[in-house]
Design goal:
By secondary structure, this protein is α/β, with parallel strands linked by helices. It has helices at 3-14, 66-82, 100-104, 117-136, 150-161, 180-192, 210-226, 246-259, 273-287, 295-308, 312-325, 333-345, 361-370, 376-389, 395-406, 410-426, 431-446, and strands at residues 17-19, 28-34, 39-46, 58-64, 90-94, 139-148, 168-172, 195-205, 229-238. It has two domains: 8-262, Alpha/Beta hydrolase fold, catalytic domain (Rossmann fold, 3-Layer(aba) Sandwich); 265-446, Serine Threonine Protein Phosphatase 5, Tetratricopeptide repeat, CATH 1.25.40.10. It has 17 helices and nine strands. Helix 5 packs parallel to helix 6 and helix 10 runs parallel beside helix 13. It is elongated and about 85 Å long.
């Protein structure tokens, strides 16, 4: 190593920021000389995959006992965010220094004597860690806090002392049995607040010490009896898990439960448009920004209520939702007129389309395939209609040809495959797609 390189590396660490490669993605380290803790503390940061290609801002998860939990948390987060089950976020890992009781316990164990260390650690988070992250990274003010065991106790302490500092909290196997006084403070906080737009998750393993599971049940009851409006909460009892595995299963459950309301799924068949709007208004208040059902989710639900569980009432609710949240879009509303006729008359009435009320090729294609073998008359009707309404697209002709071939009409199938090939060639579509059309045409010509 050259002297200049060695000097550069030394200077980077003197400025309290180091960057290194890690397998779990926590490759940024920062050191804080804390005036509240009167010691040096390190934090590690994992940025979202899209961070450097995007100007968007991200929620931040603050993870206590980082050296114990950051790899498991990163694995679960990467999987869920990669599958788009949860949004991307910044994760800040805060390792402990061996003084967990000093930093996390609000009272000295089994006494009502206050431990000032927990307040000092809370000030460290609020006044040193969070400002540092907000000043240097693309963060939003939606913050999450997660802790296990004694750190789970601290998660409750943060709710009691600074309820607005974090919008979501995860407490895995919290050692509430050590601090009876904390449950009294928790009950007082919840009872004294009429509204608290926040989320709280806690869990415990069924094989844990009975005093811990008893305290967990009592804490859950406090939430049930006293939680103010706007506070969502979930308590999970994992019967085959213990103290060490609860953070792993809990982190997955906490992420999924926190973000579950962003998608209503099959609830559209049970809800009115007024209930849907009320739901998203409440979730928007909790998360601090406007949340509405995505057009992709509505399209997926439309497909579900058309092809898998036919339900015109649920579809009509979807279209009202679409019109409310996306008044200028025709993505789903273009299907509305056709589907209302289809549910009433099926193939017995010819559909007359207009530009404003023309079902999409994707809808007709999906519906047509859903009837193959079950009702080929309907399948052929729908796929033929797709070719008539979308003569500029190659895929409807290929799909129609496939079903014609399936029913034994090889001559008509060849005509459709030829049209699909001609359209795709003229429009210079993907070479692999054109090759598929060509293979289909040669196969049926041979027949």
């Amino acid at each position: 190593m050259t002297k200049m390189l060695l000097l550069a590396l030394t200077l980077s660490c003197i400025s309290f920021t180091c960057v290194s490669e890690t397998t779990d993605g926590f490759n940024i380290s920062k050191t804080i000389e804390s005036k509240y803790l009167k010691e040096s503390r390190q934090i590690k940061i994992k940025l979202p995959k899209s961070y450097h290609q995007s100007k968007q801002r991200y929620p931040v998860l603050y993870l206590l006992d980082g050296q114990n939990l950051q790899s498991n948390t990163a694995f679960i987060y990467d999987f869920l965010s990669g599958k788009r089950h949860i949004p991307e976020m910044i994760i800040v890992s805060i390792p402990h220094t061996g003084q967990r009781s000093r930093d996390y316990n609000t009272f000295f164990r089994d006494t009502a004597k206050v431990n000032p260390g927990a307040d000092h650690f809370l000030d460290f988070l609020a006044n040193e860690v969070i400002p540092l992250v907000d000043a240097n990274y693309q963060s939003t003010d939606y913050r999450l806090l997660a802790g296990h065991s004694q750190a789970g106790l601290f998660v409750f302490h943060s709710l009691i002392k600074k309820p607005e500092l974090f919008k979501a909290r995860f407490a895995f196997s919290p050692s509430m049995h050590h601090i009876p006084e904390q449950r009294k403070l928790l009950q007082h906080l919840l009872s004294a607040n009429r509204e608290l737009n926040s989320y709280f998750y806690s869990n415990v393993g069924g094989t844990e010490f009975f005093k811990m599971t008893d305290a967990f049940a009592q804490t859950q009851q406090i939430f049930k009896d006293h939680a103010p409006t706007g506070l969502r909460f979930d308590f999970d009892f994992h019967d085959v898990d213990g103290h060490q595995s609860s953070p792993f299963i809990g982190q997955h459950s906490a992420f999924k439960r926190l973000y579950a309301p962003l998608k209503l799924g099959n609830a559209y068949e049970k809800m009115t448009i007024e209930q849907v709007i009320k739901h998203f208004d409440a979730i928007s208040a909790e998360f601090g920004y406007t949340i509405k059902p995505s057009q992709r989710e509505l399209a997926n639900q439309e497909s579900y209520y058309v092809s898998y569980v036919p339900d015109l009432t649920a579809l009509q609710t979807l279209y009202k939702v679409m019109k409310h949240y996306y008044p200028d879009s025709t993505a789903l509303l273009s299907n509305k007129t056709f589907l209302e006729q289809w549910f009433k008359h099926g193939v017995d009435k010819t559909f007359t389309a207009s530009n404003a009320h023309k079902p999409t090729a994707d809808l007709l294609n999906g519906m047509g395939y859903s009837f193959v073998d079950k009702d080929n008359k309907k399948a052929l009707y729908l796929l033929k209609l797709a070719t008539e309404l979308h003569p500029d697209l190659s895929n409807p002709f290929d799909s129609y040809g496939e079903v014609l071939e399936h029913t034994g009409d090889h001559q008509s199938a060849a005509k459709m495959y030829q049209l699909a090939y001609d359209i795709a060639t003229n429009k210079s579509e993907n070479a692999d797609t054109i090759a598929i059309y060509q293979r289909n045409l040669k196969r049926v010509q041979a027949l």
